[in-house]
Amino acid sequence: MAERVALIDYGAGNLRSVENALKAAGASDVRVTADPAVVHAADRIVLPGVGAFAACMGALSGISGMIAAMEEAVLTKGQPFLGICVGMQLLADAGEEYGQHAGLGWIGGTVRALKPADPALKVPHMGWNDVRPVSDETLIVRGEAYFLHSFAITDIDPERVRATTDHGGEVIAAVGRDTIMGVQFHPEKSQVYGLALLKRFLEWRP
Predict the structure, then answer these.
(1) Mean of the per-residue pLDDT values for the chain?
(2) Is pTM, for the whole model, over 0.85?
(3) Residue 56 is among the residues annotated as catalytic for this protein
(4) Active-site residue flag, 137
């Protein structure tokens, strides 16, 4: 029986691009959903995200029962989870975009504005950049991915950093623990590299 992938619709992601990329990577049953029951029953969960931390966290919190369903599925049942861009940032304890706002707290750390050491480098960090694994995590391999962000996770346990990139200084590009993985870049826009990562996620048995 095909695994069910819940792609959470909370009004904060380019859902169709992610859905199409997951299908291209081999997923046969992708449910784009705002229904906590569907998330709770899914075999794998993907949380996309485009926009500001506070707005995204507010939208996710605004779906009655959604965060509880995510916590039960991921933290209790151990279902594999992938957060993309702001979906990764929401795993932090807090975000500092437009004030201080609480996150999910699954990974720790704080989401802060990018401040490249080289003033010639622009923010947002936009375009292709290296992904450099810093652990033996099998999901993340070296390559180039597409980034589009002005904020990034900082101050997390080094054991939870899975990859970095460079934008006028080291920037965390991927985080993880247990059955949780988050990537700052957009696999759905990262062509061959991104589809390969999504395929590994669909096959992941943490």
Answers:
(1) 94
(2) yes
(3) no
(4) no
